[in-house]
Amino acid sequence: MTDGKPGRTRWTEIRSFIERRPWSFLSWSAGLTALAFIVFYGLQATTNPQVGIQFVQSEWPDPSIFPYFYAKPITWFAYFSFVYWAAGLESNKEHFLKLSPRARNMLFLGTALVAFASFYEIFYNFMVWLALEVLTTNCLPFPCNPDKVASIFDLKSPLNLVFATKIVTTAFGLSMYSLWFLHRVDVETERRNQTTTTVDTNVKTPLAIPPRKHIEIEAGLAAQQPIDPTRDKAGVNVLGKMDLWNLMM
C-alpha cells in the first residue's frame, strides 16, 4: 500500500496538468513524436545517396502488421509537426494578447513571407518532379518510381523530391495557421479594448442632477385645483360684516 502511493500521486499530478493545460500537453506530445521520427530515420542518412530518401523509402508501421494504416516517416513528421505548432500557439495565446500591436504586425509580416516562399517552392518542386518523371528513362524498372526521383540541379547531393515537397508543404501549412492565429489574436485584442473603454466611460460619467419637474407639476396641480365655493362665501360674509361694523362706528 505504501509503495503505491507515490505512483498514484505522480499520476494525479500529471492528470491535473493535462486538465489545466491540454494544449501544452498535446503540443509537447506531438513535438516529441516528430523528433523521434527525425532522430531514428535521420541516423540512416549516411547510408543513402539521396538527401531525405530514408524518410520516403520505408513505411511505418510495418504494412505486414497494419495493412490498412501506415504512412511514410516524412508524412508522420509533417502531421505531428503541424499538431505541435498549432497546439503550441494555442497554449501561448495569452502571451500573444499581451504583445504590442507593432510586435504582432512584425510577426504577421514575417509569417506571410514564409507562406509566400513555401507556396512558391511547392509549385517549383511539383514542376521539377513531373519534368524528371518524364525525362528520366534509365531507371529500373521503368517507369520510374516517383518516390525515388531526386533533384540534382545546383546541389552537391541529390535531393529527394518527395521529402522536399512535404517539408515545404508543412512549412506552408504552419505559416497559414499562424496567420489565422494572429488574426484571431488581433480580433480578440480589439474586442477586449472596446469592452475596457466602455466600462471606463460608464464609471467616469458624472451622475446627472435629477430634474425638479415634480415640484413644477405639484405647483401646476395646486393651481388647477377647483375653488371651494363654501370657503369663498364664508370669506365674503366676514368681509361684509367687518365693513358694516366700521360704518356704524
Strand-helix topology:
Elements: H1 4-20, H2 22-42, H3 73-91, H4 93-97, H5 101-135, E1 150-151, E2 159-160, H6 161-204, H7 213-223, H8 229-248
Antiparallel strand pairs: 1-2
The class by helix and strand makeup works out as mainly alpha
Q: What is the 3D form? A: flat
Average residue-wise pLDDT? 80
The first-to-last residue Cα distance is 125 Å
By DSSP (H or I, 4+ residues per run), the number of helices equals 8
**Element-by-element helix/strand order:** HHHHHEEHHH
**Number of self-contained structural domains:** 1
Total E-strand runs: 2
Radius of gyration: 42 Å
- Order of strands, widest sheet: 1-2
Description:
This protein is an all-alpha fold. It has one domain. Helices cover 69% and strands 2% of the residues. It contains eight helices and two strands; from the N terminus they run αααααββααα. The protein has helices at residues 4-20, 22-42, 73-91, 93-97, 101-135, 161-204, 213-223, 229-248; strands spanning 150-151, 159-160. The protein has a two-stranded antiparallel sheet. Strand 1 (150-151) and strand 2 form a beta hairpin. Helix 3 (73-91) packs parallel to helix 6 (161-204). It is flat. It starts with a helix and ends with a helix. The model is unreliable at 232-236 (pLDDT under 50).
Summarize the structure.
The protein is built from 8 helices and 2 strands; from the N terminus they run H-H-H-H-H-E-E-H-H-H. With 249 residues, the chain is mainly alpha-helical. It has one domain.
